[in-house]
Amino acid sequence: MAQIKLSNLRHSYMPAPKGPEDYALKEIDVTWRDGGAYALLGPSGCGKSTLLNIISGLLTPSEGQILFDDRDVTALPPDQRNIAQVFQFPVIYDTMTVGENLAFPLKNRGVDPATIKRRVDEIAEMLDVTDMLSTRASGLSPDNKQKISMGRGLVRDDVNAVMFDEPLTVIDPHLKWKLRSKLKELHQRVKATMIYVTHDQTEALTFADEVVVMQEGEVVQIGTPVELFDRPQHTFVGHFIGSPGMNVLPCEAKGDRAVFEGHEVMLEGPTHGDGGRTDLGIRPEYVGFGDTGIPAHVTKVSDIGRHYVVSAMVGNTALKAVTEHSVPEPGSQVYLQFKPEQSRVYRDGWIATEERS
Amino acid sequence: MRTENQKAWFFVLPVLALVAFNALVPMMTVVNYSVQETFGNNQFFWEGLGWFEQILRSDRFQAALGRQFLFTFLILLIEVPLGIIVALSMPRKGFWVPVCLVLMALPMLIPWNVVGSMWNIFTLPKIGLLGYFLNDVLGINYDMTQQPLSAWITVVVMDVWHWTSLVVLLCYAGLVSIPDAYYQAAKIDGASPWSVFRYIQLPKMKTVLTIAVLLRFMDSFNIYTEPFVLTGGGPGNSTTLLSIDLVKIALGQFDLGPAAAMSLIYFAITLLVSWVFYTLMTKDDAQ
Ligand SMILES: Nc1ncnc2c1ncn2[C@@H]1O[C@H](COP(=O)(O)OP(=O)(O)OP(=O)(O)O)[C@@H](O)[C@H]1O
Ligand SMILES: [Mg+2]
Q: Which family is this sequence assigned to (chain B) (predicted)?
C-alpha cells in the first residue's frame, strides 16, 4: 500500500507534440492518499483513461514522474507496480473457470497453491461468487463477469491501488447500484486506494470521498462532493456538477460586487486580478424569489420531482432557479435574489473572489 | 413468424434444383456405375458390392490412400501452426496492414493449374531458377522429376506457399477482434506471452481455426490439379494421390465400375474425417 504521487505529468499520443492542444494530458500534479476512495470525473475524451493507464504502467508518460511513496516507478511495467485495473468491458479468460480466473494473477506471480486457494476463497466470499467457483467463466452474465474482473484485481493482497475505468457501463441499471454498494463495501474491507473513473456525477459522488474533476487534459478541482458543489473552483466544475448546473452569467467585476445586466450583485468577497472575461457564478439552488431584487421574466417551469426548476430571463441572459415552493407562473414577472455568500466571479473560467472570513 | 419460415423454402428451392441437377443426379449415376459392370453397348450387369471390395483390398488403392493421408497430415501440420505464427506477427494497426493483407491474398488468387506450372518451371533442374540454384550453386542433389523425396518436398512446399495465407487471414480476423482491454488486463495480471496466447488469443481464434482446419483438410485431401501439373503423380507412383489415381482409373483405363466405387469411398472418407474434426474441435462449446 502506498501513496501515489503524480508530478508534472504530461502525455501526448503524438511522437512530436507541438502546442498544448497535442497533449492528452497537460501538466498533472495530483497526490492520491493511501486508502482513499477517489472518483475521476470528466466528460468523454478529457484524458481519464489515459491517466489511469499511466498510473498502472500500461502507458509511459511523455514527461513527468509517478511516485509510489517517493519511489519512482515511472519506468516500471504494470506487473511490477502492484496495481489492479478493471476495464469498461469485463475481461474474462473464457476457457478458465471462475476460480481459475481469480487465481490467475497469483499463479503468474508464483504464489504457492495453499495461499492461492485461501485468497481465492476469501475474495469469492466477498464478491458472493463462491457457488460459481467451478463453473466456466464464459457463460456468466455481464455483472458477474465484471465482478470476476474486479476479483482478479483484489485477489492480490499487496495491491497499491485498484482502478476502475467506467466499470458499470455494460451493467443493467437495476444491478448498477448493487455493484456500486459492493464496491464501497469492498473499499472498507480491502483498504486499498481506489480510483473510480466515470462521467456520471451521481456515480462519482456516491462512491468517492474525494472527486477529481478533469477537463481537456487538466485537473480543474479536487475536493469532497460538498466542496465541489459549494465552491466550484472553475465554471466547468459548477456546470458539470449539480443538476441543473451552476448559472454562469456574463458580468463586470467591481470590488466585492458584480454588475450583471445593469444590476449590482453582492459577492462572497473581494475580486482579485483584472482583465480577461468575467462571469458571475451562482447555483440555481441559491437563487431565491422576493418582493425586491433583480427583475426577471419567467419563461418555463419544470417539475422534476422533489423541486421545480424555473427558467427565467434577466434582460437578454437566461438563468435557472430551483425552488420547492412559491412557484411563479410562466410568463409572470418576478424579482430574483442572489445569495451573496454563494455569488462568485470567475475570471477566464477560474474563481476570482476570496471567501470572506 | 410461422408463415415467414415457410416462405423461406421458396428461396432455397432454386438452389436445391441446381444442386440436384449438377450434383445429386451425377452422383446417383456414380452410385449406379459402382454396383454394375459394363462392357459398352449400354449393357450392364449387376455386380453388387464387388467393386467396393476389390478397391478396398487392392494394394494400389491402399498405397494411394496412405500417400493421401500423409500429404494431408503434413499440410495441416505445417500450414496451421505456420498460419498462426504469421497471423500473430502481422501488424494490427497502421500503414502495413493493407500491404500485408494484399501480399497474403496474392497466392490464393492464382489459379491451381497456373500454380502447378509455375512451380514446375521454377523447380526443374537445369532450367528452373530454384532447381538451378539448389543443384549448381548449393550443390544439393535435387530433382523432383527423378527423386520421390524431392517430388514430395516440392508438392508440399507448393501447397504451403499456395494455401497458408488462408489460415493466416482467418486467424488474423480472429485476432483483430480481440479488444485492447484483454491485452491490458493480461499485462496487469502479469501474464507471460505464452499465457496471453494460450488464454486469450487461441480461444478467440478457435472458431475461425476450426473453419481453417476443415477447409484445409478438405482441400488438401481432394487436391488434384497442382500435383498433377507439377509431377503428374510421379516419379513412378510416388506422388499419385487419391484423386490422381482415381482419374487414372476412370479416364485412363476407363474402368468405370471400380472408379465409381472408389469415388464413393473417397467421398465417404472425406465426409467422415471432416465430421470427426468438427466434432472434436467444437466439443467444448457444447457444455
Ligand atoms: N491510443 C490512442 N492514440 C491516440 N490518441 C488517443 C489514444 N487514446 C486516447 N487518445 C486521445 O486522447 C484523449 C483522451 O482520451 P481518453 O481515452 O483518456 O479519454 P477518456 O476521458 O477516458 O474518455 P472516455 O470517457 O470516452 O473514456 C482523446 O482526445 C483521445 O482521442
Ligand atoms: Mg475512457
A: Belongs to the binding-protein-dependent transport system permease family.
A83's enclosing H/E stretch is strand A83-86
Does B287 score more than 60 pLDDT? no
Residues of chain A with CATH 2.40.50.140: 245-351
How much is the pLDDT for B226?
A: 85
Q: What is the pLDDT of residues B195-231, one digit of tens each?
A: 999 999 999 898 899 999 999 999 999 888 888 888 8
Residues from chain A that touch B204, judged by Cβ atoms under 8 A, are 94
Would the CB atoms of B287 and A104 count as touching at under 8 Å? no
CATH numbers and ranges of domains, chain B:
70-236 (1.10.3720.10)
pLDDT, tens digit, 9 for 90 and up, residues B25-73: 888 888 878 887 777 667 777 777 777 788 788 888 888 889 999 999 9
Partner residue opposite B184 with nearest CB, options A87, A104, A109: A87
Terminal CA-to-CA distance of chain A, rounded, Å? 38
d(CA A231, CA A253): 18
Residue intervals of chain A classified under CATH 3.40.50.300 are 4-230
Q: Whose CA is nearest to atom 11 of ligand 1?
A: A24
Residues flanking ligand 1, CB < 6 Å? A 13, 24, 42, 44-50, 199
Q: What is the pLDDT confidence band of residue A106, given thresholds at 50, 70 and 90?
A: very high
Give the homologous superfamily in CATH for domain A4-230.
Answer: P-loop containing nucleotide triphosphate hydrolases (3.40.50.300)
**pLDDT for position A256:** 85
pLDDT digits (tens, 9 = 90+) for B112-155: 889 988 898 898 887 888 888 888 888 888 888 888 888 899 99
Q: What's the CA-to-centroid distance between A267 and ligand 1, angstroms?
A: 38
Record the cell numbers describing residue A324, joined without a space.
420547492
- ipTM of model: 0.80
Whether the Cβ atoms of residue A309 and residue A244 lie closer than 8 Å to each other: yes
A245-351 sits in which CATH class?
Answer: mainly beta
Mutation target among A56, A76, A87, A146 for the B interface, most CBs of B within 10 A? A87
Tell whether omega for the bond before A328 is within 30 degrees of 0, i.e. cis: no
- Point out the least confidently predicted range of A58-67, A218-227, B37-46, B73-82: B37-46
Q: Are A69 and B167 in contact (CB under 8 A)?
A: no
Measure in Å the smallest separation between the Cα of B37 and chain A Cα atoms. 55
SS3 B1: coil
